[in-house]
Amino acid sequence: MNYDLAVIGAGWAGFNAAVRARDLGLKVALVEKGELGGTCLNRGCIPTKTLIHCAKIYYLAKKSHVFGIETTGTQVNFTKIQERKEKIVQQLRQGMQFALKGVEFLNAQAQILSPQELKVGNQVVTANSMIIATGSKVLELDGLKCDGKKIISSDGLLTLREIPRSLLIIGGGVIGCEFASLFCNLGTQISVVELLPQLLPGIDNEIAKKLENIFKKKAIKVYTNTDAQKLDFNNYDLVLLSIGRVPEARDLDLEKIGIKLNKGKIMVDEYLKTGVRNIYAAGDCTAKNMLAHFAAYQGRIAAENIVHPGSLKKSDNPNIPSCIFTDPEISSVGLSEEQAKACGLKIKINRFDFLGSGMARILDETDGVMKIISDEKTKEFLGATIIGPRATELIGILTIAISNRLTVPQVKDTIFAHPTLSESLTDALKENHVV
Fold it and tell me: Looking at residue 145, what DSSP letter applies?
């Protein structure tokens, strides 16, 4: 069988690439050895956020007296929580399957034989172009491996059938901190150990410190500047190894056909081209930015560049929102304070504490701050970081502002509805909130 395009990997990058290429008129094959949806749907974004929301509901039920609601006997049925997670994943997978109408989905292992040939299961197919979107896998330490019993990965934690009494989380990055919030809300005793000086390395220092203080108030033990391998694992029911993810591309023998790898990641140019003329790569396997929404963006760009080689689009959009579903949530876009200063920019910082928000008080979620960075001279937005209620939704407004190079005066007089969390943006931009 011959195709215009073969996409290897049906995660968020591959799926979006295939759908976009189909819409642009190509005959497309989407090849996936596992389940449709990749890491995001099956072992990442969707299942983790489902569990996080369920845990938050339990947490709110326990404190319902704050809202004048008296409850007794509130309990967690973890089996039903897991069943709800699986149901949501299945429903979304079915939706993706339906959206692939017109794309041939080949559920088998792929092996690239040449720049135009693929072995898919027991058959060989040809394609004029290819997009590699094989995603990423859990990173392990040389001296510390997951055994699936005492030491588990994030994949293993998602399939638990019982809530652990105590959990040691190795790695205070996004995955580790999200699971810390999740299981803390379910009543587990949590310890987080991070080798670097702060939680969430790379995020705004002030916001990371704020999260650490909130964790400590919730009795989550935080150990920074600490080597986890020096701890006694016998003090914990379970140990979660969550030190990040790495590109998954080694099994394809890509270097045999001229595609270069660097520490496992596929090397691409600004248009997502590999060193082989008709082969592109997108998503986590390029290790540009391991976020599902950026992978989807890259997938669409790669497909469009294949269809329109005379008007190539760059994939280097710097305005990528980052969302962390801790409790409270954290989000960011653009430059942090530290990054802006490192660039030599003269900046203005506006802050707003959610203690001053009417809606935050209604929700009883006032622990947080909105921090906005702008250029002192041009007044353009440069970046923002938020920790607080619905931070992952609020960052969308600032992403639009930064992407369209809006200025502070253009936004601060915008009328937002009251009482809402979004009106905190204009509150932050008032002169009296400049710090």
Answer: -
**Maximum Cα interatomic distance, the chain, rounded to a whole number of Å:** 68
How high is the pLDDT of residue 395? 98
Measured distance CA(173)–CA(389) in Å, rounded: 20
For 16-40, the pLDDT digits (tens) are 999 999 999 999 999 999 999 999 9
418 is annotated as an active-site residue: yes
Q: What is residue 230's three-state secondary structure?
A: helix
Determine which one of 65, 293, 418, 433 is catalytic.
Answer: 418
Q: What residues have CB less than 8 Å from 341, skipping those under 6 apart?
A: 347
What stretch of H or E contains 391?
helix 391-403
CA–CA dist 17, 306 (Å, integer): 10
Higher pLDDT, 55 or 288: 55
3-state SS assignment for residue 414: coil
For residue 355, which phi and psi values (nearest 5 degrees)? -60, -25
pLDDT digits (tens, 9 = 90+) for 272-309: 999 999 999 999 999 999 999 999 999 999 999 999 99
E runs forming strands in 204-293: 221-223, 238-241, 245-247, 261-262, 265-266, 279-281
329-370 pLDDT, tens per residue?
999 999 999 999 999 999 999 999 999 999 999 999 999 999
Residues contacting residue 182 through CB under 8 Å, at least 6 positions apart: 48, 51, 52, 55
Contact in structure between 431 and 421 (CB atoms under 8 Å)? no
Tokens of 299: 């997938």
Sequence-distant (≥ 6) Cβ neighbours of residue 217 within 8 angstroms: none
Residues 373 and 420: their CA atoms lie apart, in Å, by 22
Q: Which domains occur in the chain, in start order?
A: 2-137+247-307 (3.50.50.60), 151-243 (3.50.50.60), 322-433 (3.30.390.30)
Exposure b/e, 73-109, CB count within 10 A at least 16 = b: eeebebeebbeebeebbeebbeebeeebeebbbbeee
Is pTM beyond 0.85? Reply is yes
Task: Find the angle CA(310)-CA(313)-CA(314) to the nearest 5 degrees.
Answer: 135
**Two tokens, residue 389:** 């209620």
Segment 123-165, tens digit of pLDDT: 999 999 999 999 999 888 887 889 889 999 999 999 999 999 9
